[in-house]
Specification:
Number of domains of chain A: 2
Organism (chains A, B): Actinacidiphila epipremni
Protein name (chains A, B): PadR family transcriptional regulator
Distance between the termini of chain A: 50 Å
Radius of gyration of chain A: 21 Å
Oligomer: homodimer
Number of strands of chain A: 4
Helix content of chain A: 55-70%
Structural class of chain A: mainly alpha
Shape of chain A: globular
Strand content of chain A: 5-15%
Low-confidence stretches of chain A: none
Largest interface: A-B, 67 and 67 residues
Order of helices and strands of chain A: HEHHEEHEHHHH
Mean pLDDT of chain A: 93
Number of helices of chain A: 8
Pfam families (chains A, B): PadR, Vir_act_alpha_C
Largest sheet of chain A: 3 strands, antiparallel
Chain lengths: ~190, ~190
DNA sequence: CATCCCATGTAACCTGTTACATGATTAC
DNA sequence: GTAATCATGTAACAGGTTACATGGGATG
C-alpha cells in the first residue's frame, strides 16, 4: 500500500487516464516515485474498486477513448491518514553508483561512458523541470507563486527534482573527471 | 539479480559478516542501495552457493562468532559483466515527497513536522559522511586522494551521499519555510 | 533487571518486473 | 509502409517486506 498514495497525490491536481498518469510518472512524479505503466493500470483499478477514485469515460475522435480518474472524498481521507503516518525510509537504488563503488577493481571505460550519458540525461531532465516550473507558475514570479500560487505541492516537488538532477549532473561530471585523471585514456588494465 | 551486485561491490574493499554488511547498508551503501538485513543474509547465502563469495568463520570472545565474506574471482567477473551492462533507471521512492505533492489538499502540520525531522536527520547523515570521508582518505588531502588514493570508489559514492543529504536538508528547510509562510502557524483548515 | 548490541536466519505474504497481447491513428 | 503515439491490460515470475524466532554478552 505505497504506490497507492503516490497515485492519489498525483491525481489531486488533475484528472488523468492510466496512460497520462504513466507519462506523469515518467517526468514530474519520477522525482519521488518510480512505477511502471502496468502497475498504474492495476493500481487505478484497485483504487476504483475501493472507492478512492472514480473513473469517467472520455469519448475522443481520431484516437481511442479513455477513462480519466478523480480522487473521491474517501480517497482524500486515505491520503490524510497517510500524511499523518510516519514516513518510511527513503528508498534509493542506482546501478551507476554501484559501478562507481567498484571502480577500483573493474574496468572503468564503461563506467565513464555511463557517467557521461547520465550527466547528459540529467541536463535534459533539468531543462524539462525548468519548463514544468514555468508552466506551473504561469505569469507569476517564483517568489509570488510560492507565497500565494496554487497548486504549490507539485511546484515544490518539481523544484526538488530539479535540484536532484543538478546534483546528479555535477557529481557525474566531477566523478568522470576524477576517474579519467587517475587512469589516463580510461583504459582497463589486464593481467 | 540486482541486490547481488550491490553486495559484491560493498564486499570489494572489506570482508564483512551479514551483520556488518547490514550496518554498511545503513550508512554508506545507503546512498545508492537500500536493503534489509534479511535480504543480505539471504543474498550472501546465494552468493556463496554460486561461488561468487567465500565465507570464513571468525571466532570471537565475548560475543558470538561470525562468518565474514570475500569476493572470489568469479564474483569479480560477475561484477565486470554487470558494469558493462546498461544501467537500469534510477529508482527513488520517498513518502515525504508524496506528502508535499499533496500539500494543497491535506493538513500540513504533520508534513511540516516531518520536513523538520528529515532536515535534522539529513544534517546528521552529512556529519557521518564527512567523518567517513576523513577516515577513507586518512592523512591525504582530498585532492591528493582523488588523484592517487585507494579505494577511490567508496570515496566517490560517499561524496555523492554527502551532496544528496545536503540537497535534502536544504530542500526540506526551504519547503517548510514556504509552507509556513503560506499558512501561518501551520494550522489545518477544517470544514 | 532491563535494554541494547551482536549475530543469524525462516516463513508467509505482498509488491514489482518482464514478457506478452491488442488495435486504431498520426507523422515521416 | 514504418514507426511512433494513444490506450489498456494479463500472466508468470522475481524480488522485497513483515512478522517471527533464538540466544549470549555488554551497558546502565
Amino acid at each position: 500500500m505505497a504506490l497507492r498514495h503516490a497515485v492519489l497525490a498525483a491525481l489531486l491536481d488533475n484528472e488523468y487516464s492510466g496512460y497520462q498518469l504513466a507519462k506523469a510518472f515518467d517526468i514530474g512524479v519520477a522525482n519521488f516515485w518510480h512505477a511502471l505503466p502496468q502497475q498504474l493500470y492495476a493500481e487505478l483499478s484497485k483504487l476504483e474498486k475501493d472507492g478512492l477514485v472514480t473513473g469517467r469515460e472520455v469519448v475522443q475522435t481520431g484516437r481511442p477513448n479513455k477513462r480519466v480518474f478523480t480522487v473521491t472524498a474517501p480517497g482524500l481521507a486515505e491520503l490524510e491518514r497517510f500524511v499523518a503516518a510516519e514516513p518510511r525510509p527513503t528508498f534509493i537504488r542506482d546501478d551507476l553508483l554501484v559501478k562507481v563503488q567498484a571502480a577500483d577493481r573493474v574496468g572503468t571505460a564503461e563506467v565513464l561512458r555511463q557517467l557521461d550519458a547520465r550527466a547528459a540525461s540529467a541536463a535534459e531532465k533539468m531543462a524539462a523541470y525548468e519548463d514544468l516550473l514555468l508552466t506551473l507558475r504561469g505569469e507569476a514570479t517564483e517568489e509570488d507563486f510560492l507565497r500565494d500560487g496554487a497548486p504549490v505541492g507539485p511546484y515544490l516537488t518539481c523544484r526538488r527534482g530539479l535540484a536532484l538532477e543538478r546534483e546528479t549532473r555535477d557529481w557525474c561530471v566531477h566523478t568522470a573527471a576524477v576517474l579519467r585523471a587517475r587512469r589516463p585514456g580510461g583504459e582497463v588494465p589486464r593481467g
